[in-house]
Amino acid sequence: MAMDQKKMQKLMAHLIFLDESGFLLIPNVKRTWAPRGEPPIHDHVFSREKISAISALAVSPQRKHLSLYTHLWRNDISAEEVLEFLKHLLRHLRGNIIILWDRASIHKSHLINEFLEKHPRVKIEKFPAYAPELNPAEYVWNQSDSALSNTSPEELDELEKMLTASIRKTGGSQKLLWACIHASDLSWK
């Protein structure tokens, strides 16, 4: 006996892979081609300034479409920023949401727990400890790292522009987003 359409829609949910990362002004050096004896040189000013980022790779309930949601900050990500990002997701996604994330301490704060209690359409699942290879959102950041490789931004504004361009490229391509899913060690059918 077939389940009616409304009941089926209640059971379906957006699957969200969430992860945070940081990008420093220090050059990310990657192997590249150069004439023999002339290695590439990246002049840079040593600085610990960084852009902190959070992303959500969203799989539609029917698994037909992927979306990428991101926010960037010029400070470390705390529970307040995670909460702001979760509110952003709720404004953009209808229906139930299942969020898969790591066991970071910011995900366990009382602010996050209070928010989740008030929003029963959001369910949380945690990846096993020390298993970043399972989270497809990690591979979004791998693509950004690759795009920023062998560059030497001098200011945070320049780094932010480069990072934003990389994120737009990834988020605008279903092929690149599916590559993140398939690069992970998750069993995907």
Walkthrough of the structure:
With 189 residues, the protein is α/β, with parallel strands linked by helices. The chain has a single domain, classed as Ribonuclease H-like superfamily/Ribonuclease H (Nucleotidyltransferase, domain 5), CATH 3.30.420.10. The protein has helices at residues 5-11, 79-92, 110-118, 136-148, 156-171, 174-183, and strands at residues 13-24, 50-59, 66-73, 96-101, 122-126. A five-stranded mixed beta sheet has the order 3-2-1-4-5, with helices on both faces. The radius of gyration is 19 Å and the shape is globular. The two termini are 24 Å apart.
Give the radius of gyration.
Answer: 19 Å
Span between termini: 24 Å
Secondary-structure element sequence?
A: HEEEHEHEHHH
User: How many separate helices?
Assistant: 6
What is the H level of CATH, i.e. the homologous superfamily? Ribonuclease H-like superfamily/Ribonuclease H
- Portion of residues in helices? 25-40%
Strands ordered across the widest β-sheet = 3-2-1-4-5
Structural class: alpha/beta
Give the low-pLDDT segments: none
* CATH topology label: Nucleotidyltransferase, domain 5
What number of domains? 1
Q: What can be said about the biggest beta sheet? A: 5 strands, mixed
CATH architecture assignment: 2-Layer Sandwich
